[in-house]
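Hi, here's the filled form for the chain we discussed.

Project: internal
Contact: R.S.
Residues: 174
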Amino acid sequence: QGPIGLLLMQLCRWAGADVLVSDTFPDRLEMARRLGASVALDATAVDVPREVRALTGGRGADLAVLAAFGQSPFAQAVAATRPGGRIIVFAATSPGETVQIDLGALSAAEKEILTSYSASVDVQDLAAQLVFAREVRVRELVTHRFSLDDAPRALEVAVHPAPCVLKVVLVCAS
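And the returned structure, exactly as it came back:
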């Protein structure tokens, strides 16, 4: 899920949802717990859709917010969502990112797929209020700080997802 998923998780919680998350990195699961996830599932160790159904009385999630791209996360999100539920895809941001889907099964279950790339200018004031009031915590998402002189190293760390890496920040000396 990474930093975007952790932000979206906090927003869902702020909106009143009981939030279940999944990830493949243990440190990100721990961060999700610290930031308020009710349940954090290790996608490498459990059948995520089965666990979600077990935790929701067999029903499935009302909403799955997908902040990690790929066939496996997408298929898990669809499978974990209840009939009539919604899947919001926030992770696919470049042309050519594709997944396969059984439209017949999706239609029969009346599931809805929504996509989003960014936020509307209309919600920027609310986003700032949530951050400044610390209702959405962002400080913990910054895991690495580099001086401007170390910008090439910062870029190297930022572009390669790895355990214990979320947001990388360049710090300018004053």
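Let me know if anything looks off before we file it.
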